[in-house]
């Protein structure tokens, strides 16, 4: 019987499920290295499935928007696999403020409503467009980009990234929600000090 | 005035928009290299937007399913950016047959209906689950996987890949839709010759 | 004396032998990450030599063939170095069934006898040829391929991979040697249920 | 004589100097691909040497600073080699405004004077310090960072990048030196419209 | 009939065989980029097969050895696939002199005779051993290494590389077979000038 | 108030500062993997700043030169970021002997004096030139290269690498400062045995 084949090949399969080269589900309590998290040893199908994007994020806030990530820190199954996702909910007038992903390119897919999205190249050229349901738009790695609701009803989008951990640097938070001294902000952005102080006040920044 | 700054930095921006490191929209009629297509020189926002996934694919076929890709060959804006997408339409009883993507990992996002999806690891372990709307599932690079409609109404999913050109090798097409001699198929798959001949007949294979 | 040079440069060499960037012999009992195993600290020449491919594998089985891997799990010295090997023994009528390596390209080198080898592209084109002693053939990453003895005497080949852990997914094992339900196999492969049941029986599959 | 060795090995060296894997000096008028420029065929030592960083940049401008790049577009020898450089001249009170390099990490080396440098992480934590002559500081890829003269005399620094084409996105130029509509800027940055208009005026932006 | 499936998927396969992501057989007369050669458009199985390693190299020379490469320049099928091979023939007393591969790690497989092989780490530690038929040894990227016949009969080995174009820098040729001035060699190697002149004479070097 | 935004995004920032994808400061006492060191958990600005290159190295030795590295082992902040640096001090007649960096390309920047620098390609072509203050020169990965003081006063250079751990293999140390048997050196380098013995004596080699 062919059963004998099993013995020939089976030693190939004697190591753990977390075979390097097949997959490496993140052990979120394990070590991190430049390549990602160390691998979890016992794995089930639930490690590869994530339901956290099913529900709308809470848009009852000033930007009338919510970003729900499924990066490796939320969805350990993508560790080392070179991709991840997130969900965007935009109420009417909702906006995802100017931001970058330092470590990944992005594709946005509009699944509900209409969204105006754009990015700015290193050459300072602006590329923006109003997208309808079913449209996709790609944002090259590391460039400033934004999205806002371009319609009169709530909008929903799902975004994909070329990294399990693309990062997210929101311009206003980076500048105004920490203790970077106002004088340094003024000096390096040419913004008026009053403007800086005003935004620090609302975003919780100090100094 | 600050205008003078422009002169200092402007020589940085004198090269074409298709700056290496920012983006490289594919010139689909240009040369291909192992890194992708050569870069298009004149670029507009429309190079970064793709509407081809907006409409449902035609599922009036035997598998009752359609796959609509937005790989680099359809969506030149993703060239070199490490990601791409596709749309899956599954009528009732629709199925995306067993297949692999030789060059990319995948995340499937269910946006309508219910889909049963699974993959098989190198250790021959099967991971499959019925997914509801909003669920996502990751399929590690190069492994056999499948999706089929698990509900009683049409289902739609969008899939993201970790490569602009992940490839798609559908098992039945690879085995039965070309001129690979039946004797070789029998010898290398242990399928009965009658089974091979039957599937070659329906899929258009010869030899 | 030039001996003094030693003092100048020696602080460069004060870290362990397992210098990142030179080599990283796998500690097989250590942690795995997406980049491979953690590095062993004490290293000798024997970590870089492997004799497990010297002896023929046992081909007294139904496929009349044996695959002996020297992947990182068997040969820790290749960890992080981007390559590995394996040995193929094919008795008369021996066959290495249809399979893929999800994470690596392969070159096959025939060192004894004659081997017919082939692969199938994403475009469903078949590339196969009978190879003689000394011939080499390359199989691009992730594509289905096969090898069988094309002569009247035993054949031996050595295969090289572009990864320390290329993986190995044998089609028949993936489909028929686990608990993937027969109905799902039928649905996603178009094989007849009787065919599926027959192969599950010989390969030890259930469900 | 050993001369005979030459005949044995010489066929290895019959291809052009621009051997793939050794180096690939950019043909700046050639094609670009995601991996860089196509290779120049005739190469001399001058392709590997660049003198454009020897002279101080002109700091007679409002930021009292100059950035002189030696990216692949200026220094074709670095094409495909994974690194590049630039020179920073900072007059008294000079500042390199808040910016990112979308495609590369940076190390700054102070060779004259004193420079205050900092970056902001995705977690909105600010890391900044006054650096003296001989100090180096690393700025991780894609994160907002800045430098300004922290002393009472001119300062000079050289910066190294982990890419031949790291890109440079200066925040003020990205926001205010193009035709991105003021309303969109206001909406996506929370800046006051008057502030936006003021900076557009000085930086040459429209809309 | 299932034939209808063909229509659904066929548009995926309408581009050329040289699909980015599947394979990219080198057009050796085409352009080179940092990622390799541009892709050939018409491809047959013979592009993936190479017979040039079948015959022994000519060892009637002073080193009593021959190296026959199957790098991308000889075997275009490996372009972009991350691996290549070469054949080593060592007559009795044959030697492959001290050398490096700047762009790839290597595995040596002894198929006939006995070979003493070794490498030297960045920490100046020597790892060497006499290998028998069937043994394999790995040489980490870029490190000095050597092989010589350790037995009393001819030896043959096949070597695999982790790059289609690993490069080959033979120490004696690099130092003594070109016009690098003897004074510079003496200054940078501490060799006696007489020694330098002697080796320049036999290897054809000038200056 | 906009303060509410904080609640929406804040869960993104709840993990440690050593976020995969942003940076991964090396824990030098932690594990190493092929991708570098594991990440330190508590990080301050001082992890990103290194002052060890500020002081001149001691050139009171026979080569009249000193190399001071800021590789990951000295400067943990560069772990995983793809670059590092070093300082070269060359007294009058000082020389950095023939060497390679197995894992990185290099750019040399002359900041004081005049330096003659060169490298040798795989094709045995020599590229060398006398560089003045402010000149930069690139050395492709893995190739033999050298630098020596070309003037009549001390020279200083800073070198950048395309890897946090480029390695450093100095030819004379690799050959003559360890226990590699003299007979093997003679056999694999064609140097006279007396020459080998002489250099072993000064460099501390045995055997």
From TrEMBL, chains A, B, C, D, E, F:
Q: Which GO terms describe its cellular component?
A: apoplast; extracellular matrix
Protein's UniProt keywords contain Protein biosynthesis: no
Known Pfam families for this protein? Cupin_1
Record InterPro entries: Cupin_1, Germin, Germin_Mn-BS, RmlC-like_jellyroll, RmlC_Cupin_sf
Q: Which residues form a coiled coil?
A: none
As one GO molecular function, the record gives: manganese ion binding
Q: Which top-rank group of organisms is this from?
A: Eukaryota
* Name under which the protein is recorded: Germin-like protein
């Amino acid at each position: 019987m062919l059963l004998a084949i099993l013995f020939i090949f089976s030693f190939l399969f004697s190591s753990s499920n977390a075979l390097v080269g097949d997959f490496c589900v993140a052990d979120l309590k394990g070590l991190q290295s430049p390549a990602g998290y160390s691998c979890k040893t016992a794995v089930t199908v639930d490690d590869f499935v994530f339901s956290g994007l099913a529900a709308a994020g809470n848009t009852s806030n000033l930007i009338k928007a919510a970003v729900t990530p499924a990066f490796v820190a939320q969805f350990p199954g993508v560790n080392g696999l070179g991709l991840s996702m997130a969900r965007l909910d935009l109420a009417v007038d909702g906006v995802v403020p100017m931001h970058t992903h330092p470590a990944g390119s992005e594709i946005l897919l509009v699944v509900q409503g209409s969204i105006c999205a754009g990015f700015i190249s290193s050459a300072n050229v602006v590329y923006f467009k109003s997208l309808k349901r079913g449209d996709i738009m790609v944002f090259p790695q590391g460039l400033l980009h934004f999205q806002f609701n371009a319609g009169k009803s709530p909008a929903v989008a799902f975004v994909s990234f070329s990294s399990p951990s693309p990062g997210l640097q929101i311009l206003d938070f980076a500048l105004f929600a920490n203790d970077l001294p106002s004088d340094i902000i003024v000096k390096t952005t040419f913004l008026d000090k009053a403007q800086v102080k005003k935004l620090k006040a609302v975003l919780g920044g100090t100094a």
